[in-house]
Amino acid sequence: xxxxxxxxxxxxxxxxxxxxxxxxxxxxxxxxxxxxxxxxxxxxxxxxxxxxxxxxxxxxxxxxxxxxxxxxxxxxxxxxxxxxxxxxxxxxxxxxxxxxxxxxx
Length: 105
Prior knowledge:
Blueprint: H1 2-13, H2 25-34, E1 40-42, E2 45-46, E3 49-50, H3 52-60, E4 65-69, E5 86-88, H4 93-103
Parallel strand pairs: 1-4, 4-5
Antiparallel strand pairs: 2-3
Helix pairs in contact: 2-3
């Protein structure tokens, strides 16, 4: 959760309006349904749950997202993550911001 709060601060410092961090799949799906974001960052694992259902919900409503995870490429085996950019933890702030900026292109 500390890394999520650090990411939140980084994004807010760069002008993003952050909805979260959201610590569970169930809660994330409710947030997406109530207030779809313009873009998202996902970890592959949220308290022991795969974030694949969140990725599917975001793709369904055409919201671009990236994965920010310490698990690496081999854990992105679910087809929903096939073409999703991965930023590995511990992340470099500049790399993360560049990767997010590419989503809007």
